[in-house]
TrEMBL record:
Sites where the protein binds Zn(2+): C78, C94, C101
Cofactor: Zn(2+); Mg(2+)
Coiled coil regions, renumbered to chain: none
Protein name as catalogued: Phosphoribosyl-AMP cyclohydrolase
HAMAP family: HisI
Keywords, ordered alphabetically: Amino-acid biosynthesis, Cytoplasm, Histidine biosynthesis, Hydrolase, Magnesium, Metal-binding, Zinc
Pfam families: PRA-CH
Family stated for the protein in its record: Belongs to the PRA-CH family.
Domain of life where this protein originates: Bacteria
GO molecular function list: phosphoribosyl-AMP cyclohydrolase activity
Record's subcellular location: Cytoplasm
């Protein structure tokens, strides 16, 4: 069965959450948004492409920073309303220069920073 990006369940703005996970370690790196065209571009190019809500434009991860996400696998969840991209990440995934966007934990009611920016 061939895959058609239009069969995914997008929100009212035409977007679907995309979780990026390191293919080697399983670490969750980030969450961003894709529209049907970003899904298609990702699958065609092998470079993960998101939709930037703030810029209202496509965002090829690493295009300007060099922190590229090379697609390893593309998965659709059971409800077809979220996708998981497993990637080979070059450099930090987070715009704060950290390996992951999920660098803050809440433990015993306190925020704890789990990682500092990469050098």
């Amino acid at each position: 069965m061939s895959f058609d990006p239009s069969t995914l369940k997008y929100d009212a703005a035409g977007l679907i959450p995309a979780i990026a996970q390191d293919a080697a370690t399983g670490e969750v790196l980030m969450m961003a948004w894709m529209n049907a065209q970003a899904v298609a571009r990702t699958l065609e190019s092998g470079r993960v492409t998101y939709w930037s809500r703030s810029r209202q434009s496509f965002w090829v991860k690493g295009e300007s920073s060099g922190h590229v996400q090379e697609l390893v696998d593309f998965r659709v969840d059971c409800d077809r309303d979220c996708v998981l991209v497993t990637v080979r990440q070059t450099g930090p995934a987070c715009h704060t220069n950290r390996r992951s966007c999920f660098y803050t934990a809440v433990r015993e009611g306190e925020e704890v920073e789990l990682m500092t920016p990469m050098v």
